[in-house]
Specification:
With 138 residues, this protein is an alpha/beta fold. The protein has three helices and five strands. Strand 4, helix 3 and strand 5 form a beta-alpha-beta unit. Helix 2 packs across helix 3. The N and C termini lie far apart (103 Å).
Length: 138
């Protein structure tokens, strides 16, 4: 004879309501304790219209066309080698006492031709290089 009653045990459950309450408390704490700060940018002082430049520095204008041909101050250069172009730049900068190289490259010019001009400027001792671009406004 079996006098014991079979008791059915319930499966244990995780109480999700308490878990959600704890997570909401942590979320509120993180939202309150978080400080939002703006990252510092570069301090740039732009010139205004009223200011006049003392004297604009002379620059060597280099034009690179779509085929990779180079012109220095309006004169086509025959130098295809970077070292020969650097020699021409050094001679031109010593005659005109310039320190800035202004590169006008065609939109279809290869990157290599522009990089070669930049390398020639570096070899010539002209570290200040600027690029000119045309705006799309019509």
């Amino acid at each position: 004879m079996n006098f014991r009653q079979s008791t059915r045990r319930d499966q244990p459950e995780i109480n999700l309501i308490a878990f959600i309450d704890v997570l909401l408390a942590v979320l509120i704490f993180l939202m309150i304790s978080t400080s939002f700060s703006r990252t510092a940018g570069l301090a740039v002082r732009l010139s205004t219209v009223g200011e006049e430049a003392s004297s604009p520095p002379k620059s060597i204008h280099i034009v690179v066309d779509a085929e990779g041909h180079v012109a220095l101050n309006g004169r086509r250069s025959s130098a295809r080698d970077t070292s020969l172009l650097a020699l021409e730049l050094r001679n031109l900068s010593s005659r005109e006492s310039t320190q800035i190289v202004d590169i006008h490259a065609d939109g279809q010019a290869t990157h290599q031709s522009v990089i070669s001009v930049m390398e020639a400027a570096r070899l010539a001792g002209l570290p200040q290089v600027t690029f000119s671009a045309q705006s799309n406004s019509r």
